[in-house]
Structures are given as C-alpha cells and as structure tokens.
Design brief:
- By secondary structure, this protein is of the alpha+beta class.
- It is 37% helix and 10% strand.
- The mean pLDDT is 85.
- It is elongated and about 65 Å long.
- It has a domain at 14-65.
- The N and C termini lie far apart (53 Å).
- Strands 1-2 form a two-stranded antiparallel sheet.
C-alpha cells in the first residue's frame, strides 16, 4: 500500500512512546543523581518511592536502549595472573603468522572458557 510510509510519518507518537519519553527523563534524573551507579532495580525502587508507577521490565528496557548501566559489585575474576619474572618462550616466528608453503608453520592458541563447574581450557 503506497500510503503506509507517509501515514506512519504523519501519525502522532503512540501512547507508549509518549510515556517512554517521560519515563526516560525520570530514569536519567535518578541515574545521574546517584552518580551513575544505580541499576534497573534501584532506579525502579527510587521511582516507586517518588510515586511513579512503572514496571521494572520497562525500566530495564529503557535503560538498555539508552545505554544506562549500573555498577556491578565485586572484583572481576582473573583467570590467569602472569608471573612477571618467569622466563618467556622465544618468538620463533617473529610475529609473522603467514606461511610461505603448507606444513611450514604450526601455531597453537589456548583459550579459557568459563563454565559453572570452574574453568576449562580449549586448545585450537
């Protein structure tokens, strides 16, 4: 139907879009007032205290769309910690990973894959 594009362009914003525009400003205010630390749960709780009736999933959706993310607690886990004084193996290929002919160069890569039971590794 040829009139659909222009019909969509002329149509006013939906009630959801209008409410989202108001909500995102309130979410940004709460987020900024708390130094960008609050996640969706805390923003939801603060808005409820202010008397704004909104579902937490709506706040999660809007925060995700606008790139707002709360700070996570705890230290990030590091799988390997390099030993600074340990000897390093020599770089035999001088960082040149392209072989001139087949069976001339063989490389290996060890990738750690975190799983629930701990950490496992894969060799390629």
């Amino acid at each position: 139907m040829p009139g659909t594009y222009y019909g969509r362009k002329r149509r006013p914003p939906s009630p959801r879009a209008q409410r989202d525009a108001v909500l995102i400003e309130q979410i940004k205010d709460v987020y900024r007032a708390n130094y960008g630390v609050y996640g969706a749960r805390r923003v939801h709780r603060q808005l409820r205290r202010q008397g704004v009736q909104v579902a937490r999933c709506t706040i999660e959706r809007l925060m995700l769309e606008h790139g707002l993310e709360g700070v996570r607690r705890g230290a990030k886990s590091r799988i390997t910690v390099p030993d600074e004084i340990a000897p390093r193996p020599p770089d035999l290929v001088n960082r040149r990973f392209v072989a001139d002919q087949p069976d001339q160069l063989r490389l290996a890569d060890i990738t750690y894959a975190p799983v629930r039971a701990g950490c496992t590794w894969r060799s390629y």
